User: Fold this.
Amino acid sequence: MVKVENLHKSFGSLKVLDGIAFEVAKGEVLVIIGASGSGKSTLLRCVNALEPVQSGEVYINGEAIHKSKGRDLSRIRTEVGMVFQHFELFSHKTAIENITLAPIHVRKLTREQANERAMALLERVGLPEKANAYPSELSGGQRQRVAIARALAMEPMVMMFDEPTSALDPEMIKEVLDVMTDLANSGMTMLCVTHEMGFAREVARRVMFIDHGRIVEQGAPADIFNNPQHPRTQAFLSQILV
Amino acid sequence: MGDIGAFDPLKWQRTFDYLPNYIQGIPMTIAISGAALLIATLLGIVAGVMRLSKRSYLSGVATVYVEFVRNTPLLVQLFVVYFGLAPLWSGNRFIPMAIGLGLFAGAYVAEIVRAGIQSISKGQLEAALSCGMTGTQAMMLVILPQALRRILPALAGQFISLIKDSSLISVFGYTELTFAAKKVTAATFLGFHPYVLVAGFYFVICYPLSLAVRAFERRTARIG
Ligand SMILES: Nc1ncnc2c1ncn2[C@@H]1O[C@H](COP(=O)(O)OP(=O)(O)O)[C@@H](O)[C@H]1O
Ligand SMILES: [Mg+2]
Assistant:
């Protein structure tokens, strides 16, 4: 479903991704962990080509997104939903308009079709009553759930989450994780950067630890969390698992 | 102020005799400012977006335009445009004057638009792109609407400036507000009173606009 090969990325002289390679199978949930600045966000951004890479390849369902341009690139991106740390809802649009904007203008759905789907998605994330609220009128947890619905509205094959709960107050984290868990259980292929260990243990098939732009260690959540092999993984986990 | 008779009722009386001239000038001033604003807004949006383009010939053209306008006097620009374009519309002075004012204000609008776009976080663009929008769609559907709403007060301020700057076109004999004062001066040999009155008219037009802008800002605060 997602295949990354030998990815290298630098910002000037700063090497951020240093030969990353992995695959995510259909229906698989991959959780990526690593210290701040280790390149997790950059990796996700390279997967849907928001960031150009210096070398390496990224395939989405067999299509080479790293070489694509223009309309082709946009079309492949519709297969990759993305959820951001800071939600990035369109502030001039209501919740439902946020969800219908791309389906109407990219998928060319009619407004009625798009609205119907959007309402179903709002039900799914538990916010049907907020359809006409503006982002500024929603709590952080609600915003993030709308952002998830917005990404789902394009019916992507893969969903990527970049620390979706780290900008949230503690009491709102669960409502977002519940939606993500539900999504995983429905068979969605997911790449999640998150330090929510409970979620990772319960939902992830695989956990991947990244340090300085390299994959240091990966495996089943139980193995990584209970029995990390690499000293750097051990050091990182001892910091975040209190 | 003894000499000029600032409080001389007779002089005011003679000035107010020409009230109809002023009244006639108001719609002219508003029409030319409105037309210029329309030109300035369209031009400013295009030039503002162009200035941020990665293609250097686009940003280059926009930069030359903005810098040229901002570093030459408006009155000189008006003369250049007026004498340069007037032959294209034989007899119609409105169009070249509106274009002259619009070209001038457009450069300032371009800078406002550019700052507005830059004030929208990069994450908004990325969210739009990740939904499968093209760069153009992201600009038209996500970035510009937010940027324009954010800069609306500045644009309205620009409109108020345009109304004031439009007084310069009185030099072309166009019968707008300031020209009315000129005419009264010519007819009555009064200098002070007609211009005080015309200042009052400008204030009466511009001040409510300023208030309306502030009210609008309060009303849209909800969208944030
Ligand atoms: N656009 C950019 N320009 C320059 N440096 C960047 C840019 N984006 C990220 N970086 C740098 O790349 C490194 C990895 O960043 P990031 O991928 O955001 O890490 P993480 O998400 O793991 O915290 C950091 O040192 C960061 O400062
Ligand atoms: Mg990050």
